[in-house]
Amino acid sequence: MTEIKPSEVSRILKKQLEGVRTRLELEEVGTVLQVGDGIARIYGLANVQANELVEFENGIYGIVLNLEEDNVGAVLLGPSEEIREGDTVRRTGRIASIRVGEGLLGRVINTLGEPIDGKGSVKGETFEMPIERKAPGVIFRQPVKQPVQTGIKAIDAMIPIGRGQRELIIGDRQTGKTAIAIDTIINQRELYRKGTPIYCIYVAIGQKGSTVANIAKTLEEHGALEYTVIVSANASDPAASQFYAPFAGCAIGEYFRDTGRDALIIYDDLSKQAVAYREVSLLLRRPPGREAYPGDIFYLHSRLLERAAKIIESDKIAAQMNDLPTSIQKLVKGGGSLTALPIVETQAGDVSAYIPTNVISITDGQIFLESALFNAGVRPAINVGISVSRVGGNAQIPAMKKVAGTLKIDQAQYRELEAFAKFGSDLDAATLAVLDKGAKNVELLKQPQYSPLPVEQQIAVIFCGTHGLLKSVPVERVREFEKTYLELLTARHKELLQRLRKGEIDDEIMETLENVAEGVAFGLKD
Amino acid sequence: MNESKISVRYARALFELCVEKDALDEVYRDVKLITRVLSENPDLVQALESRVIPLSRKEKIVTEIFGDRTNQATMQLMRLIIKNNRESYISMIMRQFKDLVKKERGITEVMLTTAQPISPDLIEELKQLIAGKIAGTFEMKTLIKPEIIGGFVLRVDDLQLDASVRKELDRIRKSLIWGFARI
Fold it and tell me: What's this model's pTM, rounded to 2 decimal places?
C-alpha cells in the first residue's frame, strides 16, 4: 500500500474547507417549551408542515407530528439529554427522507440512513427518497405472477409467495419466524450470482444489538450480505426511530422497485413498531383506543404494507406513477416489485388480538408458526392447515405446481385422521395409508436452519412424497432417504435438475425420479 | 383532549376584555411583569401549582404580590385561573396573550445574541438597520452567550439569522463528515 503524504492530506482538507458555502440564510425557528421522554413541545415554528424534519441546537433531528394551536409536538430522532428548555429549533424544510443508493447494499444503517457498522460512509451516488409516501395507484400495478423462492419446502410447495405479495409470518416467540426470513434472504444468493437478484432489506425494530450483529454475521457467512441492507432501530434507540424504521426500509425498497428491479423487505417485527408508535402517541397526548393503541394504528400498518407492490411492465405508464420522488424521476422503469414479509409476534397463540387481526386483514396471506409443532420437532413449525397464500399457484413454476398440487390436501386429510393414529392397527388399510403418507410427508417437509433448497431439489423431493414412493421407507429414515436421494440426483442427473428448474416436467422426468427413488428406498427398507 | 384550547381561550378572553376597557398596553406590561416574576421565582410557581394549598390562600398570595402594581383586569384573570384550577397553564396563557397583543399592535420581538458584550453605539446602529426593515415597532433584547464563540445571532420573532462562528464550524464539520451539505 503506497504511503499517503501529509501534504496531500492537508491539501485535500484545504480544498474541502474552501468549498464550504458561507452564505447566510434566514431560518424559521421556534423555542423548546418542554422536552422529555423522546418528545419535545416547541413554541413558534408557525409555518412548519406535518411530518417535517426540524433540527435542534445540538444537531439532533426531530419529526413534527402534532400541530396544535399554541405549540408544536415533535418526536426526537436522537437522545434528549442535551436539549434544554429555551433551545432554538429550526425548520429544515424537508419532509423526513432518507438517502438511498447502491452503496447501501451490504451495510447496516439506522433509521436516518447513517451507517452504524463502522465501515465508513455510504459510497456512491444517493437519491433522496421520502420516508412517507403514497402507495402506487391501481393503474400502475399488475397481478403477481413470479415466485419468490424461499428455499423452504413447506412454503414454496403449499404457501408459495409471489413477487409483489405481502405474506405475514406470525407466531409466538421462539417459533422460528426470523429463521424463515433469514433463510429466504440466503436463498436469493443464486439469483444474485446469476445477475438477476432480488435485493433484500431486513428491518430490525426494537431488537437487541447483539441479535442484529449475529444476523449480519450469519448473512455474511452465507454470502448473503452483499445484496442485503440491514436497517436497525435497536431497543435502546428512541421510540420515534423505532417506529419510523420500517418506513425508512420501505423507502429503500421503493428505490429498487421503481427502477425496475425486484426487492424483498422483512419487517422484524411489526408488533414492536406498534408498541413504539403507541408510546409516542400517548406521550403526545393522543387519545388511546383499544389496548391503549392510538386510533390510527391500523393506518400505520396499512399504509406501510400497501407500498409493497408489483409494478406494471410498461416503462411509460410507470413513469407517470403518483407521488414519484423527483430524485429518481429519470431512472424509473416498469416491471419492478417489492415483496413484504412482515413478522408479528403473538402472545400464547392468540391471533385474535388487536394487532395480529389488523395485520392479517391487510396482508395477502399468512404463515402460522406454532410452538407445539416446534417442540414436537417439526421445524419449520408451520401449521399448513391454517396458513394461506392468496396468490397461490400463480406464483409457482409449472413443475412445482403440478407436483405439489395434492400435497396440501393430503396433509389436510392426514391431520383430520391424526387423532386416530393412536388406535394403531385397529384401522382399515385406506386410513393407515393416509396416516403413513402424511407422517412421511411431515418428515420430508422438515428442514434444518440456514439450508434453503433450490427449487429443483424441492420438486424432486416433494415428488417422492406425493407419489407414494416412500411406502417402504420407515418414518425415522425419511430424512436419510432425502439426503441420499438428493446426493444421487445432483451427482448423476444434472440436466434433469436443470429442466426441473426451468419448470419443465414430463413423463420421462417423472420416470427417472421414480427409478432413483426406488433405488434409494430399497437400500433403506427394513 | 387538546390542551392548547385552554390557554388560547383564557388568553383570548383577557384580550377581548382589555380591548373593551382600552387597557391593552397596561395589561401587556402587567403580563410581562408576571412572566418575569414567575420565571425568577420557581417557589412561587410551585406554590401556585400545589394541590395542597387552599384556593383562598393562593388568591391572597397573588393579590399581595401583584395587587397594587397591576391593572384590575389582570388581577381578575389571575383569580379566575386560580378558581378554575388552571394554574399549570399560567405561562402558556401569558405567552398566548403576549402574542395576541403583539399581533394587534404590530410589535416585533428582536433578540440579539453575542459572545461578548458589544458597544451601545453598535446596538443603536443595528436598531436603525432593523427599523428600516420591519413594519411597526420592535423591542430589542440582548443576550450574552459565550458558546457561540463569535459573530452574532439575530432573532426576529420566528425568523433567525445565524451568523455565529459556532454555526460556521458546525457547517464545516458536517460537510467534512457527509461530503455534501446535508442542510
Answer: 0.85
